[in-house]
Amino acid sequence: MTINIETMAARIAARFAEKLKRVESTCGELTYEVARDDLVEVATTLRDDEEFRFEQLMDVCGVDYLTYGVGEWTTYSATDSGFSRGVEREPVILDEADTFDPRRFAVVYHLLSLANNVRVRLRVFPGDENPPFLPSVVDIWNSANWFEREAFDLFGILFEGHPDLRRILTDYGFIGHPFRKDFPLIGNVEVTYDADKGRVVYQPVSIEPRTAVPRVIRDDNRYAEALKDGSSDG
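Above: the chain's sequence. Below: its structure in token form.
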């Protein structure tokens, strides 16, 4: 059975009232914000209720909104000092702040109802605690296991109740979370083989920060109207 997304939206609005806030979507999918404390209850209902039947969790992804809306690459002039955040910012290993902006980090859950052929996205903001945390949904959708580990590894978001929350992509001794916007592009340490010690060792990064200048939009007389074919002046 296939239902219109607005039919599903009406069902969700009727059931969850104040617990889900619909978010405008540029791709025509249903997207909602849910409070951290309501996540488990809402997710369980979306999975089990016959009106919804979102049996599959397709993905869980972290988001860092630290520089959201900042047009870092919008410029009409070049620079000789570098334009990349990897050059301009000081290296960050661990963020020692007690709190974050409450809407800096988010976790997005992508749900699929095979019965109704409808997708829904849930976005949750962990709040301002450092480290950020959310309840795990592994007991609701088992596929969340590795997805939550990935969000923990790359963004440093903790999931309470996860059965095996450890890194999944970075190395065992990795420090920091590489998908955070303030993590240095060149990293903090590098791995090399030490022939004298006969083993792999960690050492400070030896790569020099590279000045990354974006493509600059400049006025060019080749595109001047007066020089185009068919111009009245030509």
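The chain has a mean pLDDT of 83.
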